[in-house]
């Protein structure tokens, strides 16, 4: 049986868990849980702050600068990995590279005389999206449910590719970061400056 056996203890523990989870979102080298605990206790017991406000502000600035530098280095690394991947991928037989840098290869073909979507078309597709290391971040195929969307309402790499396809085509897209989510990334699954890989099947123009 849990030692947190009253509503008060459970909520108290929950507050601590929330604080811990918040710290995990952006940890930094040298983070001291002991000092965090002391800070909580001192605040709760109304103990005078032992740190000069100016010193505290300067310390925050130092840590922010370190975190920013580490993030910039990580983003540079991701961009480099994506670029290296695309450069090697472009050498493979069957891979086509467009003027924008988008790469694709044909897995299956529809009717070559079929109609291609316009930029303002709505299409129905199946897709399977991964990072360059194969990690899946989104897949209508796995959900078993195709999706409809506007050609001009998705990332630039998709917008470009869809206008080259006809219903029945299934292509594998290799999308550089500047044609995907760029410096912003997309949630936790797709970081900044990451190249992406999609298998896209154009089912229909709606």
TrEMBL record:
Q: Which reaction does it catalyse?
A: [protein]-peptidylproline (omega=180) = [protein]-peptidylproline (omega=0)
Gene Ontology biological process terms in this record: protein folding
Work out whether the entry's keyword set contains Isomerase.
Answer: yes
Named from the GO MF annotations, one term is: peptidyl-prolyl cis-trans isomerase activity
Which segments constitute the PPIase FKBP-type domain? 120-206
Q: Which UniProt keywords apply?
A: Isomerase, Rotamase, Signal
Indicate what this protein is called per its UniProt record.
Peptidyl-prolyl cis-trans isomerase
Q: Name one Pfam family in it.
A: FKBP_N
